Amino acid sequence: xxxxxxxxxxSPVSLSVQRKEEADAKAIYNQVLDALRxxxxxxxxxxxxxxxxxxxxxxxxxxxxxQLTEKSGISPTGKPPGFAALVEP
Length: 89
Description:
Layout: E1 2-8, E2 14-19, H1 22-38, E3 43-47, E4 55-59, E5 63-70
Antiparallel strand pairs: 1-2, 1-5, 3-4
C-alpha cells in the first residue's frame, strides 16, 4: 500500500490517501505537484483506495508539502513514517 501525505500550512495535521499500486500513487503525487506548480487557485479532490468512501478536498494554496511513501505498517525502528519526528536524547 502506498500513501500520499499532504501537509497543510498552519496545521500540524496532514491529510493522506492510499493507493494499492505504485504507478497510481505516483500519478496522485505528480497531480499534487503539478497543481502546486500551476499557482492557480484551485480545489484538489482526492479519493482513497484503502477506505472506501473517503474523499479529501483541499485548496492547493494551503498545501505546504507532499510525500509519497510505501506503507507496510510501522517501520522496524518503531516510528511511523512522516515529515518530522521528535527524537529524545
